[in-house]
Amino acid sequence: MYDFTYHRPGSLEAAVRLTAAIDDAKVLAGGMSLLPTLKQRLGRHSDIVDLAGLESLAGIRRDGNNLVIGAMTCHADVGASADVKAAIPALTVLADGIGDPLVRNRGTIGGSIANADPAADYPSSVLGLGATVVTNRRKIAGDDFFKGLFETALEQGEIITAVSFPIPEKAGYAKFPNPVSRFAIVGVFVAETGDPKTGGGVRVAVTGAGPYVFRLGEAEARLAASFTPEALDGLVVSQDNLNTDIHASAEYRAHVIVVMAKRAVAQAIG
């Protein structure tokens, strides 16, 4: 691990000032991705700004037809929340399947989304539910947030404060996990968000399969016509731009996307 200056601000305003003023500052949320990177000297930052003391950034609340989860809310709290289970059960399934107990009790939703690991679970829920990422400056639509491999729309001095999830009519999440890390080799989040005439529709988001999370348009069209696993029979996913690595080939991932999508739909409809 390289040397760095550690900061533990007492307010969001102080954290924003630090990250805005220091070009190479890095925000620390749960640290489940950042700390291993620092220890292995795969990343180097002059300053680390720890948000652990900002209790105001944690918590879960219902806001009309939306479920708002604070950025510093850990995965275990999302998985155990009665409010989340009542509103969006698929989110509890997703949170309960992240990593191991240590990761779930330290890792945070804001940290996961800001890091934008291509195999992380939460990005699929942001895209799959059409969520809004709330920062200290603005509100960013989920469709506009993820830009590439570990790349998001966040700017210097911008910190995620919460994520607002529209409550869908139905939603499900299924993943084929790496047996060691529990990251998604392929994960699929599906949601039926209401009547298309009133701005709703079907959304299908895929994580783990490509360089960053993406929507699967053909699956959305099929499920809009019939929200059943059988609607995806015969669906062929293009291998173009899918990952090939030591865990799975692009061809295998293309096949697994369809399998996980069917399982997610089956979970959504009960």
Q: Briefly, what CATH class of the largest domain? A: Alpha Beta
**How can the largest sheet be summarized?**
5 strands, antiparallel
Mean pLDDT: 96
Return the CATH architecture of the largest domain. Answer: 2-Layer Sandwich
Task: Please tag this protein with its features.
single chain, 270 residues, alpha+beta, Uridine Diphospho-n-acetylenolpyruvylglucosamine Reductase, domain 3, Enolase-like, domain 1, 5-stranded antiparallel sheet, 4-stranded antiparallel sheet, 11 helices, 14 strands, globular
List the helices and strands and how they pair.
Blueprint: E1 5-7, H1 12-21, E2 25-28, H2 34-39, E3 47-50, E4 60-63, E5 66-70, H3 75-80, H4 82-87, H5 89-96, H6 101-106, H7 109-115, H8 122-128, E6 132-135, E7 139-141, H9 142-145, E8 146-148, E9 151-152, E10 160-166, E11 170-177, E12 184-192, E13 202-207, E14 214-215, H10 217-225, H11 250-269
What does this structure look like?
The strands form four sheets. A five-stranded antiparallel beta sheet has the order 4-5-10-6-7. Strands 11-12-13-14 form a four-stranded antiparallel beta sheet, sandwiched between helices. A three-stranded parallel beta sheet has the order 1-3-2, with helices on one face. The protein has eleven helices and 14 strands. The protein has 270 residues and is α+β, with helices and mostly antiparallel strands. It has two domains: 5-166, Uridine Diphospho-n-acetylenolpyruvylglucosamine Reductase, domain 3 (2-Layer Sandwich), CATH 3.30.465; 170-269, 2-Layer Sandwich (Enolase-like, domain 1). It has helices at 12-21, 34-39, 75-80, 82-87, 89-96, 101-106, 109-115, 122-128, 142-145, 217-225, 250-269; strands spanning 5-7, 25-28, 47-50, 60-63, 66-70, 132-135, 139-141, 146-148, 151-152, 160-166, 170-177, 184-192, 202-207, 214-215. The chain is globular.
